[in-house]
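>> received
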Amino acid sequence: MDYKVKELGKFQYIEEGQGETLLLLHGLFGALSNFGTIIEHFRKDYRILVPVLPIYEAPLRELSVGYLKNYVVEFLEAKGETEKMHVLGNSLGGHVSLFMALEEQDRLKSLILTGSSGLFENTLGNTFPKRKSYTFIERKAEYTFYDPATASKELVDSLFEIVNNNEKAIRVVACARSAIRDNVENRLHNIKVPTLLIWGKQDRITPPFVGEDFHKGIEKSQLYYIDKCGHAPMMERPDEFNRILSAFLAHQN
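>> returned
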């Protein structure tokens, strides 16, 4: 389903549903469509906010996980958001969510991470030596998932366009380097909000041990693995992902 992208000053975002707010933060190569199944499932009971992160528009010298976190905070302030919310992030979006939980904890009711960077990542952000080869990029996209068929032509086309646009490619590398540099291992004990970790058992980007390390470091965390699933469980195994998330959110009231 296509959703109307709204604008508020420099911010672009999707807003659907009513109720407690569930903020969704996408990854480095993520698109708003990656969260389609979450939006459809939860819009009946929650207000879903999905800001477009300015990965390809931000000033190159400033682009980092911290910059993206500040951008999200600016967005929430521009929207006049005062109530605590559930914050969910995938991949780089998970890393931004971690910064939210560490530096803006009063804004969070809970934290949900899936395939998050922040500890370890086999990054795709600077590994495109054959970026002019469509087949090579297609294989890179398929590497993200357990089932290669999940990498749709639309997704591959988008990735191919990004890595072959010099301005975008430079920003991808900048974000990937920031994700490595801004490791949060020694800060995880400061996260005090209830945290849900949903990990694909066959995630090759942030392997299962990364989910376990997050679980060990965050006191109030629950860890669930989804079998036959890679780096984006909400796309590859949406029914199981939404079932786990629904049960978790139901206990946060």
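>> The first strand starts at residue 6 and ends at 8.
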